[in-house]
Fold this sequence. Notes:
Blueprint: E1 2-3, H1 17-26, E2 31-37, H2 51-64, E3 70-78, H3 88-94, E4 98-102, E5 105-106, E6 120-121, H4 127-138, H5 142-160, E7 164-165, H6 185-200, E8 204-208, H7 210-213, H8 224-233, E9 237-240, H9 255-261
Parallel strand pairs: 1-2, 2-3, 3-4, 4-7, 7-8, 8-9
Antiparallel strand pairs: 5-6
Amino acid sequence: xxxxxxxxxYCDGSASPHEMVEFALSHGFTSLGFSGHxxxxxxxxxxxxxxxxxxxxxxxxxxxYAGRLDIRLGLEFDYVPGMLEDFAPLTExxxxxxxxxSVHLIPVPGTVPTCAQDLWFIDGPxxxxxxxxxxxxxxxxxxxxxxxxxxxxNEMLVRNRPTVVGHPDKIVMHNRNRYFSEDENWxxxxxxxxxxxxxxxxxxxxxxxxGIYKGRHADYYPGKWLIREMKQLCIPVIVxxxxxxxxxxxxxxxxxxxxxxxxxxxxxxxx
Length: 271
């Protein structure tokens, strides 16, 4: 077993890296990758504050557990135009072994954000925050907001080419079929454009299970309809639990079985 989308107490996880490692080892994992939320230039409760300390500790654990568990040092980058656009400086500073590229925070296109209030936060446990940001920054225009999300994601992919693309349709989580349906042509066109770009750039996409086991979404990220499209394109995928606690590492929620059921051949065990 492996997992490369893992958070710890260095960001918004509930356990120390050591606790995550011990749990993984005791449950038969062969590899564990840490991907803390990248530092951001404004006050928040979810990103890494002590980046150098994080990198030192993961590298130390990697050496300590060598031969028993393959531990990788990575980072989940939050691509935010005007704030964090280039992954290279932090990658080089931390001597990272892999990167996950994600979008959680969306400024109004053409503006330069300076604080959290300038960003539409589409993640987190509260759908009310999603709704408030949509109204405040996008005038409640869901099509404009969703297009901004996918445009930002596509810009990130071209500019940084992360090792793994994180939850590429996360925009659907707090929608809950209230503002749009994933069956609508305009939405599908935007999502498919991003998936085709992932293929064009030869990137790996994760199958993220966190929405299901947290009860925030009824499907994987990306959803099953997109996974079937990715299968036709032969896009390599890796199952990620997006773990924020040790027990989350086991929450694959039938993803491997589903991929086998539909005959998905490009499933990776390691990156």
